[in-house]
């Protein structure tokens, strides 16, 4: 056995790190940190669930991260993988078997020691269709997954307990992203007896091994997380409690922050107040900016005329003034040139995308047989700023003769329309856009650009399906040798460049993150724009007074 | 009276079944797939199908509705698709806050609206009357979220008289209740004014004045009970309006009621919660109207319930 995949992952993560947020040394405690203190974080929406197999929204994602741990984890404030509950791991030469040695003495919040049986139970549970986990599909490369998915098995064949502190996971195919998958919340280790006891209510009474434990949950009002005194990362967390107050409008949360009643407004700075906050040096000093693995795009349905015509799709790409659209959202984004965001490994440097050229776009339209343009529909989610962005797109299209009627609907309706082959000619992805589940180039392809997603109810709203690219993607994800990291990334870069040639999308912008904090919040800036913990990494944050 | 109440309750049950059918049918026809919301964007087609079967959403409409109705008649509102919790538990946790807000808002609109209406009627044609009617016009016209945000800004942020949102003490209740009640107060003041002017012209008032009865006694003992009747009938209808208003007001003030629960559920197509909140709201409207009808004979003995 040899530790080859670790190098692959580390190399890709380093690439992100250099382009993204500053790094923090792993396992090193902040010498300025003072243990203790309580903070208040606000959210508009109530928390849906804290069950790591179910929770899949940006609000509960970081909360679950602080209640549970998985075998793998990321260094705080970075996308660098590091072992979590696994003390070490070995990878078989063919890249298809992982043996994880667990840390000893790790205790669940109920006081029981965690063992390999818990790891097996947790993976079986998340892939069991009865759990209805939205993340089950991530584990597709584990041997026996298909049998779990079709209900013919109740346990994953590929996951076996070697001894109480060792677990072996066999894959049905090489998977370069597997360690990232093991760092997802869906792969968190849960206490079997706690799940059995709570049943469907486990999401309201979670028991994990994380830095915090759930102390109180008053539905519709607040959740209180208390420090886990037995946490296995010694010295962490710094905070005694975190109170999440729900039902708070972002604008009210900002007013309360200004009065010192709130430490982190979880929903961020409301768009209407953004310029006011950034114009005030005192407030601006408390805003941390960082990148995120996000791309906002317009899908052009290649199954619906006239978008089945490549020249039309290219013309639309050339008609959109991306700079102006970023101004619509007060410059909270950078214009995009390709599907991958700039901080993602595999991003093609030096590629400028389609130029903004309305005259060239008109010429292409004429060549395609539409000298006077045509009428179409643009679907958009009905919450600010998306309708405003749609209006900007509508104006750009009007300049080349395309009359686009805006269909402004609830997100569920837009998603449903996109999932039908003949419903939505164009969709602006805002509010539903792709944010990477994990920092790997492959995560922007399968469901949104691959053939698998171009099915009824799928997320490939452009209905673009290029089987050659699919085959190339499968080949790229089978490369696990450390020596071929760059080859793999080049393949992914080529895939996305080929996608751009076919122009099923107009990549519009990559959103930036802006986290505001109270004066007393301490810790490195990177913690407040942590790529995997939105809004912040609670385990490492502290207060200075 | 008992026969009347029984008959009204029977009618109420039929109304609620009708409401459940219409809401269920509308949600069924909605061009959005709740299973996709549950399954998430990375789900395989197989996962989606498994979830659809487990929730019984692969069944025809009639079967789905019959299952819902039979569970409903046993007091089971089902489990939330996304939160996985019992809907009854989620509603029970939030209903007291909404009821408290609603009662306080009704109190506000009655106190503010009736006072303004009576004063305006008694000072008919004066500057006071005209000023009060302008105020009531603003109350009726101003969008509730604007009123709520302005009140929050002035009374909480600038003057620090009340907390900035939240729940728990009477101070938390004041601004949401006034914001929610202000529109009704505007309506009531206008209704009360015209109703009062009408009553004050009646013969029995003139008789009372001729008898030398004190003006205060005439107002409270004779004019008010007659003038207030249309207002009481309105309160029952108002509960329906409040159900719409609390979604906004609860959101602005962070008030943990069912309005917020409904709003989130609609965004996520969480059908069991939408159904549950709709039925609870329908219950509140039906009961509110029933209570309003039952109170009327106590105020005006000429009215009998049959």
Q: Care to describe what's here?
A:
The complex is a heterodimer of chains A (545) and B (306). Chain A is of the alpha+beta class and 545 residues long. Chain A is built from 17 helices and 21 strands. In chain A, strands 12, 13, 14, 15, 16, 17, 18 and 19 form an eight-stranded mixed beta sheet that branches. A five-stranded mixed beta sheet of chain A has the order 8-9-10-1-11. The relative contact order of chain A is 0.16. Chain B has two domains: 72 residues, no CATH class; 205 residues, MetI-like (MetI-like fold). Helices cover 78% and strands 0% of the residues of chain B. In chain B, helix 7 packs across helix 8. Chains A and B meet through helix 7 and helix 14 of A and helix 2, helix 3, helix 5, helix 7 and helix 11 of B.
Write the layout of secondary structure elements.
The complex is a heterodimer of chains A (545) and B (306).
Chain A: H1 4-19, E1 38-42, H2 58-67, E2 72-74, E3 81-83, E4 86-91, E5 97-102, H3 116-127, H4 145-149, E6 159-163, E7 166-170, H5 178-181, H6 192-198, E8 212-218, E9 222-227, E10 241-245, H7 250-258, E11 264-265, H8 274-279, H9 281-284, E12 287-291, E13 294-300, H10 310-319, H11 322-328, E14 333-335, H12 358-367, E15 375-381, H13 386-399, E16 403-409, H14 411-418, E17 426-428, E18 434-435, H15 446-449, H16 467-477, H17 485-502, E19 505-516, E20 521-522, E21 542-543
Parallel strand pairs in A: 1-10, 1-11, 15-16, 15-17
Antiparallel strand pairs in A: 2-3, 4-5, 5-7, 6-7, 8-9, 9-10, 12-19, 13-17, 13-18, 13-19, 14-19, 20-21
Helix pairs in contact in A: 10-12, 16-17
Chain B: H1 2-29, H2 34-39, H3 45-54, H4 61-73, H5 87-122, H6 127-141, H7 144-158, H8 170-200, H9 203-210, H10 215-227, H11 229-253, H12 258-267, H13 271-299
């Amino acid at each position: 056995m040899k530790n080859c995949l670790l190098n692959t992952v580390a190399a890709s993560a380093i690439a992100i790190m250099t382009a993204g947020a500053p790094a923090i040394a792993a396992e090193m405690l902040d010498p300025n940190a003072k243990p203790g203190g309580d903070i208040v974080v606000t959210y508009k929406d109530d928390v849906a669930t804290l069950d790591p197999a179910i929770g899949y929204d940006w609000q509960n994602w970081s909360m679950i991260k602080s209640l549970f741990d998985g075998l793998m984890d990321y260094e705080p404030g970075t996308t660098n993988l590091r072992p979590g509950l696994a003390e070490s791991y070995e990878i078989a030469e063919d890249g298809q078997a992982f043996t994880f040695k667990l840390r000893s003495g790790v205790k669940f919040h109920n006081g029981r020691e965690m063992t390999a049986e818990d790891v097996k139970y947790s993976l079986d549970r998340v892939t069991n269709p009865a759990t209805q986990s939205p993340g089950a599909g991530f584990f597709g490369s584990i041997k026996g997954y298909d049998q779990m998915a079709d209900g013919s098995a109740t346990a994953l064949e590929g996951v076996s307990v070697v001894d109480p502190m060792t677990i072996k996971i066999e894959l049905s195919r090489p998977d370069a992203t597997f360690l990232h998958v093991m760092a997802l919340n869906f792969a968190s280790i849960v206490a079997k007896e706690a799940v059995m006891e709570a049943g469907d209510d486990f999401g309201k009474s979670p028991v994990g091994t994380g830095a915090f434990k759930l102390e109180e949950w008053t539905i519709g009002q607040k959740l209180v997380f208390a420090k886990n005194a037995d946490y296995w990362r010694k010295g962490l967390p710094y905070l005694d409690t975190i109170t999440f107050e729900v039902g708070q409008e972002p604008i009210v949360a900002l007013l309360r922050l200004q009065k010192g009643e709130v430490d982190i407004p979880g929903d961020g700075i409301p768009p209407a107040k953004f310029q006011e906050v950034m114009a005030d040096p005192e407030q601006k000093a408390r805003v941390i900016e960082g990148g995120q693995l996000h791309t906002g795009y317009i899908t052009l349905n290649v199954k619906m005329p006239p978008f089945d015509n490549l020249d039309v799709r290219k013309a639309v790409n050339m008609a959109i003034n991306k700079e102006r659209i970023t101004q619509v959202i007060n410059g909270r984004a950078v214009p995009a040139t390709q599907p991958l965001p700039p901080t993602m490994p595999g991003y093609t440097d030096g590629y400028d995308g389609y130029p903004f050229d309305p005259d060239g776009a008109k010429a292409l339209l004429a060549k395609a047989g539409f000298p006077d343009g045509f009428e179409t529909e643009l679907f958009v989610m009905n919450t600010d700023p998306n309708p405003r962005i749609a209006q900007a797109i509508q104006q750009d299209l009007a300049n080349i003769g395309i009359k686009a009627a805006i269909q402004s609907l609830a997100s569920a309706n837009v998603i449903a329309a996109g999932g039908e082959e003949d419903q939505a000619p164009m969709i602006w992805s805002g509010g539903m856009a792709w944010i990477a589940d994990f920092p790997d180039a492959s995560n922007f392809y399968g469901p949104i650009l691959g053939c698998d997603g171009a099915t009824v109810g799928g997320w490939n709203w452009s209905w673009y399906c290029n089987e050659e690219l699919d085959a190339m993607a499968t080949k790229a994800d089978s490369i696990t040798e450390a020596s071929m990291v760059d080859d793999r990334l080049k393949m992914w870069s080529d895939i996305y460049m080929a996608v751009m040639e076919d122009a099923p999308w107009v990549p519009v912008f990559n959103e930036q993150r802006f986290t505001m904090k109270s004066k007393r919040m301490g810790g490195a800036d990177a913690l407040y724009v942590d790529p995997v913990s939105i809004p912040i990494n609670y385990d490492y944050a502290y207060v200075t007074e | 009276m008992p026969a009347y109440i029984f008959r009204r309750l029977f009618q109420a049950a039929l109304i609620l079944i009708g409401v459940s059918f219409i809401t269920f049918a509308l949600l069924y026809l909605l061009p959005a797939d709740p299973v996709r919301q549950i399954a998430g964007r990375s789900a395989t087609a197989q996962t989606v199908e498994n979830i659809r079967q487990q929730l019984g959403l692969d069944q025809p409409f009639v079967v789905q509705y019959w299952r819902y109705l039979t569970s409903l008649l046993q007091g089971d509102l089902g489990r939330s698709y996304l939160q996985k919790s019992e809907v009854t538990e989620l509603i029970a946790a939030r209903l007291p806050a909404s009821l408290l807000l609603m009662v306080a808002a009704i109190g506000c609109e009655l106190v503010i609206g009736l006072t303004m209406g009576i004063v305006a009627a008694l000072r008919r044609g004066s500057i006071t009357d005209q000023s009060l009617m302008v105020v009531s016009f603003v109350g009726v016209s101003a969008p509730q979220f604007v009123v709520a945000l302005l009140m929050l800004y002035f009374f909480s942020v600038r003057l620090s008289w009340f907390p900035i949102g939240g729940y728990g003490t009477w101070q938390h209740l004041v601004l949401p209740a006034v914001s929610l009640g202000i529109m009704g107060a505007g309506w009531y003041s206008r209704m009360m004014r015209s109703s009062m002017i009408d009553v004050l012209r009646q013969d029995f008032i003139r008789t009372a004045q001729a008898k030398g009865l004190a003006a205060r006694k005439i107002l409270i003992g004779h004019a008010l009970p007659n003038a207030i009747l249309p207002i009481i009938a309105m309160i029952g209808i108002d509960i329906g309006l409040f159900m719409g208003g609390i979604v906004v007001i609860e959101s602005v003030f962070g008030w943990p009621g069912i309005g917020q629960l409904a709003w989130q559920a609609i965004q996520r197509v969480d059908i069991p919660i939408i159904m549950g909140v709709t039925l609870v709201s329908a219950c509140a409207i039906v009961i509110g109207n029933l209570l309003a009808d039952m109170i009327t004979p106590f105020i005006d003995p000429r009215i009998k319930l049959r």
